Amino acid sequence: MEITNIMEYEAIAKQKLPKMAFDYYASGAEDQWTLAENRNAFSRILFRPRILIDVSKIDMATTVLGFKISMPIMIAPTAMQKMAHPEGEYATARAASAAGTIMTLSSWATSSVEEVASTGPGIRFFQLYVYKDRNVVAQLVRRAERAGFKAIALTVDTPRLGRREADIKNRFTLPPFLTLKNFEGLDLGKMDKADDSGLASYVAGQIDRTLSWKDVEWLQTITKLPILVKGVLTAEDARLSIQSGAAGIIVSNHGARQLDYSPSTIMALEEVVKAAQGRVPVFLDGGVRRGTDVFKALALGASGIFIGRPVVFALASEGEAGVRKILQILREEFELAMALSGCRSLKEITRAHIVADWDLPRNRLAPRL
Ligand code: FNR
Question: Which of 89, 174, 309 should be mutated for ligand 1, with most atoms under 8 A from CB?
């Protein structure tokens, strides 16, 4: 079957993958309300397209933290990609590089920072989970730096793992032939089977629940890399991120895998953008599946977006070719959305090109509901 949109890979992945792996990739937390909402909220934003503008040339290139990329579409960190495909993170790294965009490597990757770096040139960010043992963190950050990673995406929404019921039912654990490669030498690369989710137990044992704003400052004492705070949903935390020295903010609800009934990221975005006042760039992830979604995020002030699940589903279906394909489809859809709304470059995309249902007086409260 010919793939014509990036969502189609999910059904193929479901057929190909063991249930435990597919459920881990697909699930959200608890009622999965936020999971549906991350998608649904995009449908509450409509276009105000402008016409009769010469759109024969469209420029989608942009700069993120000083790094030039071909489009504002980047790859979010998703853990354990070798469960999806034997080439896992290598395939993702190569596909991102071929598309001229940024890949973020998860702390919990099944390939190490050095291995991913060895796939060739490419602009890559490293996602960091802070372990209780700060020596582990310091070593890992140093390795990422040495391997040429350009920024740290510090995940701040996971002091404990969200309750993902499918993982509990499946007694999710990393298959025995795989390890969390970055931690292999530190004896933290294996995940024991538990009588609930093996990952939830791993997090409870290793991840530092005391993590706080002062640690964002601490991180800057051990690395010169810019820090993106990943997991901001409010104006208050946007301001604190900037005060703590963040170089950027990622509006994220962790793909709806942590706190259920968090707002969709596209509805939280504008509040964060306003609070940031242009001092640092604001990015978004969560539910982006169409070029029109990318446009809407940029119109609400995002400097770029990241995609999570589509990457693992494409990997499971077709490996590197699948990841290349989703990046290509999203790029083409986004270019078309720009052309049909009369925008020739990213800076021409404005708030006036969209209308959100919360712009209407009767829906004033909607973003907070
Ligand atoms: C994630 N996410 C994630 N985030 C993070 O900071 N570190 C990680 O290791 C992971 N791992 C992970 C695995 C899987 C299977 C998923 C689906 C998600 C969250 C991810 O970076 C991102 O925030 C969301 O995936 C974005 O939402 P979409 O695009 O999946 O809707």
Answer: 309
DSSP-derived 3-state class of residue 67: strand
Partner residues linked to 69 by β-bridges = 62
**Nearest to residue 304, comparing CAs of 70, 14, 118?**
70
Question: According to the model, what pLDDT value does residue 367 have?
Answer: 55
DSSP 301: T
Q: Is 76 in the pocket of ligand 1 (CB under 6 A)?
A: yes
Spans in the chain with pLDDT lower than 50: none
CA distances from 27 to 233, 255, 296, 320, 331 (A): 20, 9, 25, 23, 26
Residues involved in catalysis: 254
pLDDT given at position 193: 83
Ligand 1 atom nearest to 104, measured from its CA: 21
- CA-based nearest residue to 246, from 309, 310, 152: 152
Per-residue b/e over 67-86, b at no fewer than 16 CB within 10 Å?
eebebbbbbbbbbbbbbbbe
Q: Would you list the domain boundaries of the chain?
A: 5-355
Whether this model's pTM surpasses 0.90: yes
pLDDT given at position 365: 52
**DSSP per position, 21-38:** HHHHHH--STT-HHHHHH
The secondary structure of 139-170, three-state, reads HHHHHHHHCCCCEEEEECCCCCCCCCHHHHHC
How many angstroms separate the alpha carbon of residue 176 from the centre of ligand 1? Answer: 22
CATH topology of domain 5-355: TIM Barrel (3.20.20)
Check if the beta carbon of residue 6 is closer than 8 Å to that of residue 310.
yes
